[in-house]
Amino acid sequence: MSANFGRYEILRRLGIEQLPALVAAEEPVDEVSDGPFPNIPLTTMPVPGRRCPACALKGQTVWVIPGKRCPQCGTPVR
Ligand SMILES: [Zn+2]
Description:
single chain; about 30% helix; binds zinc ion; mainly alpha
């Protein structure tokens, strides 16, 4: 607790707000250390993509490259 308090004190003196993203980055990633990309959380896609809105309405998560069509339903995704 004292370590976190010390870090917060430093940020506060510098006038920097402690953002939630910064707190998440401080989380240990020991459980995924044996993966090919140990520094990337499993929920992050390594390639840029967007969820198909039509498939999302059906409860499916289909990742489409922006500018391409959804491979499941053919909906253009930008
Ligand atoms: Zn789709």
